[in-house]
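Reading a protein record of the kind used here takes only a little practice. The record below shows the convention in full.

——
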Amino acid sequence: MNEGLIPGRYAKALLESAAENNAEQGIYDVMRQLASSFAAEPSLMKVLENPFVDSADKTKLIETAAGISADDKATYPLFSRFLGLLVNNNRISLTRDIALAYMDLYRKARNIYKVSVVSAAPMAPADENRLKSLIERHLNGAQMEYTSEVDPDLLGGFVVKINNEILDASVANELKHLRLNLLSK
């Protein structure tokens, strides 16, 4: 079966359940933390896929990676029941994909754009604020989740990614295009 279809279905069901319990934002925050933990520590997937690791240990690991505890009365009960469902259906290894699918569904439902800016050097706060305001105008005032990072390999300039749309204004990209133009002649 399609691996993307199953996480999407679980994510949709979780989003609907979270809406019924007024916990959409809380579950979204948990899923963001969970996705971040999976990105920072790829070995988490190996543990979830290991058939010799007990389900209770996998559940505790996911709760820790998600940064959620029983003290969180708003989201913990729903998230805990959801993890129980995944364990019962032998889908615990899909937790990362479900978290990513949930975040996509949540953003689409709320018209939130994921914006990433990569620059060759740290941007001055005034320049970054000006760039943010340009992006906000481009998005017609829609909400955005903004992240920025530095990549010296760009040589100069920046790359803006808005969801799947990319604006590459880097020197490295310009040099690449110049090289291709020279080679094609």
Notes: Residues 24-40 form the longest helix (17 residues). The first strand starts at residue 112 and ends at 119.
